[in-house]
Amino acid sequence: MTPISNRQAPVTRLTDPAAVQRWLEDDRRWCAYALADLEEPFWSHAAFWVTAQPAPAVLLHLALPSWAVLWGHGAPAGLAAIVPALPSRPRAANLMLRAEALPEFARWYDFGEIEPMRRMVVTPATFWPASGAGAVRLHDPEELTAFYAGRAPGYDPAQVTRGIYYGVREADGRLCAAAGTHAVSPRAGLGIVGNVFTEPAARGQGLGRRVTAAVVTALFEQGCREILLNVRADNIAALSVYTRLGFETHCDFVETVATARPARSTLPQAGEHDHFSPRVAR
Length: 282
What we know:
Elements: E1 2-5, E2 10-14, H1 17-24, H2 32-36, E3 46-51, E4 57-63, E5 68-74, H3 76-82, E6 92-97, H4 102-105, E7 109-111, E8 115-122, E9 136-137, H5 141-148, H6 158-162, E10 165-169, E11 175-185, E12 190-198, H7 207-221, E13 226-232, H8 236-244, E14 248-260
Parallel strand pairs: 5-6, 12-13
Antiparallel strand pairs: 1-2, 2-3, 3-4, 4-5, 6-14, 7-14, 8-13, 8-14, 9-10, 10-11, 11-12
């Protein structure tokens, strides 16, 4: 543990994954990504800061080579105590928070578009599997990189080798729909679905539902107890697909690109957000 403090509250960086997990298990569905970050390849890039005063809160700074994430859990007052105590705040980050905590971060960051998001979850008891006919397991990161180009900012080729991807092909062999995993956490028994995309010309045939069902089925077969995803709260078509598969709403939150304040000279230059990578299913 690395203790630091501001004038109001002691803040500690936790360096033991088991200790971090104890702070996250009270709402493991909201904390699913953070629980997955307790394992490699994310753990070595993650810094978890906690405070118990004036109210319990956890802040994650995930500093990956091409993009950064700030994510918070707990009381807004606790998060407000952590942020100014950090020894180094990112200049730009993908910020994921419950809406009530956003004003506390506005003291330190300017925001881009604030996207309304929804966290959904399915379990073996609620899952309504669709027919997986025609969905095939995908193993080629380069093929998926070409398929998702400019259309799935959350896609990382490394997800293919460490996770699960399924797709549907046209008669000529070209992909027309695909879905996969952002992260899988055997430690927590969680799988996180993402990068669900169907070519516009192939929509209306249930392909998105089919490839998502194939991924979820494979995750349950691997031992995951809960499968989660993020989706824009106003994406009615995607919400319908996931609801028909048995996904249920766990909570709403917001996502935005945050840039550091107040010195304008320290703000990112044009193009610095090119690697922004939201953790969203569709």
